[in-house]
Amino acid sequence: MKYTLLIIMLCLSFKCFAQTGKYVLVIHGGAGTILKSQMTKEKEQQYTKGLNDALEAGKKILANGGTAMDAVVAAIKVLEDNPLFNAGKGAVFTNEGKNEMDAAIMDGSNLKAGSVAGVTTIKNPITAARAVMDKSEHVMMVGKGAEKFAQQQGCTIVDPSYFFTEERWRSLQQIRAEDSSKMLLDHDSAKALLKQPGNKDYKYGTVGCVALDMNGNLAAGTSTGGMTNKKFGRVGDAPVIGAGTYANNATCAISCTGWGEFYIRLVMAKTISDRMEFGYQALADATNEMVMKQLGALGGDGGLIAVDKDGNIAMPFNTEGMYRAYITGNGKTEVKIFKD
């Protein structure tokens, strides 16, 4: 009897030990020409608090043995509700003066995924993406159809005016003025203007989250308002599974941010996973190759966050900064904005 109790106690202790420190949560709030010299202390504190709030929402779930999927949704909802970030409440405006949002989520345990694109009335697009994954046989839904489905599944629907923010509206007017100016320039002058640092800061941005839970399952999610002044129903990489969002328990979970067209062309997230699975590359090597070399070689910029099946973290970016943060089960937390 004494030995039986000892064995039970050892097993319980081992179970607790095995779970302690096994979860990881990583988030991002977009990449760009983010310079300390151009940001007020107050603004920096606001961004830092926003990232910490998202971390805490995801941590509560993971620390209590919850799933990576639930943690990803919880963290992204906090970022979507924060007007500082280009997703949900802080979404940028299209050329027509509308807010059109995209989101995606993927479960690494079974490769199930869901996404929505071009939605205008869903308060938290990441919840609609999950509904597509969990409650339909589809992967992607767009526009009015996605909104109708989301409403049927109980997602919160709001009037489009909910997404209006004065700062994003001013950004639209600014870029409209710049685009008008570029029309008066010759081709070479226009190209030079486009390459000037800072011109793209307010054009695009994204939020995202990747997580590893105590059961060893990975999940990834991404949400965005897209590109300021976008036309003709443009959709970026965020809702494209394998481009801006991907998760596979055999390799890693990834959420991207940056110039979406280039991420789509590189099939960024899936290519990193393939490099790990078939090329036997480590997470750091695979992500650095794609972001620091191949993305820039095409003329694109941005970054990504990733966590692999062993809990290793990567957060590469080829811009001046990226809003990023992570927390692990052993208590380590880091929040960063600028390039170190």
Walk me through what this model shows:
The chain has helices at 2-19, 41-63, 68-80, 125-135, 143-152, 166-182, 187-194, 260-266, 268-277, 283-298; strands spanning 24-32, 101-107, 112-119, 140-142, 204-212, 218-227, 245-247, 252-258, 302-308, 313-314, 321-328, 333-338. The longest helix has 23 residues, at 41-63. It has one domain (27-338): 4-Layer Sandwich (Glutamine Phosphoribosylpyrophosphate, subunit 1, domain 1), CATH 3.60.20.30. The radius of gyration is 20 Å and the shape is globular. With 340 residues, it is α+β, with helices and mostly antiparallel strands. It starts with a helix and ends with a strand. It is 39% helix and 23% strand. It has 10 helices and 12 strands. Helix 2 (41-63) runs antiparallel to helix 3 and helix 3 (68-80) packs antiparallel against helix 4. The strands form 2 sheets. The protein has an 8-stranded mixed sheet with strand order 4-3-2-6-5-1-11-12. It has a 4-stranded antiparallel sheet with strand order 7-8-9-10. Residues 1-20 and 183-202 have low confidence and may be disordered.
By DSSP, the count of extended strands is 12
Quick one: biggest sheet? 8 strands, mixed
Structural class determined from secondary elements: alpha+beta
Helix content: 25-40%
The appropriate CATH architecture is: 4-Layer Sandwich
What is the H level of CATH, i.e. the homologous superfamily? (Glycosyl)asparaginase
- Taking all Cα atoms into account, the compactness measure Rg is 20 Å
When the domains are counted, the total is 1
Order of helices and strands: HEHHEEHEHHHEEEEHHHEEEE
Give the number of helices.
Answer: 10
CATH class: Alpha Beta
CA distance, first residue to last residue: 58 Å
**Outline, from the CA principal axes?**
globular
Strand order of the largest sheet: 4-3-2-6-5-1-11-12
The CATH topology turns out to be Glutamine Phosphoribosylpyrophosphate, subunit 1, domain 1
The low-confidence runs, each spanning 5 or more residues with pLDDT under 50, are: 1-20, 183-202
Q: What portion of the residues fall into strands of 2 or more residues?
A: 15-25%
Oligomeric state: single chain
Q: What would the average pLDDT be, to the nearest integer?
A: 89
InterPro entries: Ntn_hydrolases_N (IPR029055), Peptidase_T2 (IPR000246)
GO molecular function, one term: hydrolase activity, acting on carbon-nitrogen (but not peptide) bonds, in linear amides
Organism: Panacibacter microcysteis
Keywords: Autocatalytic cleavage, Hydrolase, Protease, Signal
